[in-house]
Amino acid sequence: MTRIALLGSTGSIGTQTLEVVRRYPDRLRAVLLTGHSNWEVLAAQILEFGPDDAVLSDPKHFDRLKEAVGSTRTRLHTGDGTIAALVRDTDCETVLNSLVGFAGFGPTFAALDSGKRVALANKESLVVGGAVLQPWLGLDAMRVLPVDSEHSAILQCLVGEGLESVEKLVVTASGGPFRTWSAERIARATTADALKHPNWSMGSKITIDSSTLMNKGLEVIEAYWMFGLPLERIEAVVHPQSIIHSFVHFRDGSVKAQLGTPDMRVPIQYALSWPERWESDSPRLDWSAMGDLTFEPVDTARFPCFRLAMESVAAGGYAPAVLNAANEEAVYRFLRGEIAYIRIPEVVERCLSTLSFGSEVTVDGLWNADGETRRLASSL
Ligand code: NAD
Ligand code: MG
Hints:
Layout: E1 2-7, H1 12-23, E2 28-35, H2 39-49, E3 53-56, H3 62-69, E4 75-78, H4 82-89, E5 94-97, H5 105-113, E6 117-120, H6 124-133, E7 144-146, H7 149-158, E8 166-173, H8 183-187, H9 191-194, H10 204-212, H11 214-227, E9 234-238, E10 244-250, E11 255-259, H12 265-273, H13 287-290, H14 304-315, H15 319-335, H16 343-354, H17 363-379
């Protein structure tokens, strides 16, 4: 029985993780569940899964949560910082982190620092803090297992291989809803346009990041830290069908790829079953219905966020933390209708060109960089 702390259980990855837990009641037990403000979904999850602890991090509706769950054995908590503290104290093997944004970093650090394994959906943890998480990363440590489908694909291709045999990693991208749009049309995109992802149904922040290709930039940085290969040996390619989830090229000229229908429950379950592979009722690939698999280069002229992400990781220090915070602010301002779509890369670029990055990254320094960037990004 694996005891799991599930952070962000009310979100897209969180609810799909609970579908996997529901499928394997004899192998997986959710001992900690967390949501931010969605008290109704969290209350239903508490009643169904009976965790030891549950957190509603935004205190606004905490009373309604308490009322909805009534008398229960689950201890209920609220407030900032509660999640990271509980992650340290909870008796569990695995922390599945499906929080969104920089809010996920502290809990990832707490989990690793207190000896747990992390099944990581929260790619922002590695983007901002890869440098301080490095001792726990890589194929030797195996303390961080990918939930992101591309990184799960790479891990699956690397089973039985050594990193010294790898020539390069190729991360695939769907291209998002604006893949075929002109720059002029993209500039006028509305929130409804940007929230229409062709292949995946996900939380709003990652859906916008997929439309700007910032998500693919974050994923290249995630792969860089997770697998420890030089940046020049990690590429992205647009593959609109989202059937091939990534490739690994080896030094003898062989290439491995992992394929499957777009269903996040597969990489979620693999992160929990690794190194085993368990049965799943996920939809199967059907060759007769599949059609062509096509590939295109990433167009950084129309999708400058990808270029900015690559520039930030090359600059090093706090630059990826600045990129991430600026992007989070810009995306939420766009979703609230405060800025036009075209301003998202502009806000990120202004923050990267205004703020300085240092070279030595510390945990405390990450909070300063994040806060300073958000202040600037919200004033632009
Ligand atoms: P989501 O918005 O659906 O869910 C986010 C979860 O985090 C929710 O439970 C929410 O209550 C909680 N949360 C939000 N803000 C919080 C805060 N400030 N403090 C504490 N909790 C907070 O997002 P998602 O689509 O499930 O994505 C989660 C993470 O997984 C992201 O990092 C995303 O990039 C990554 N990811 C998602 C998918 C996908 O298919 N959805 C695929 C790959 C990677
Ligand atoms: Mg992904």
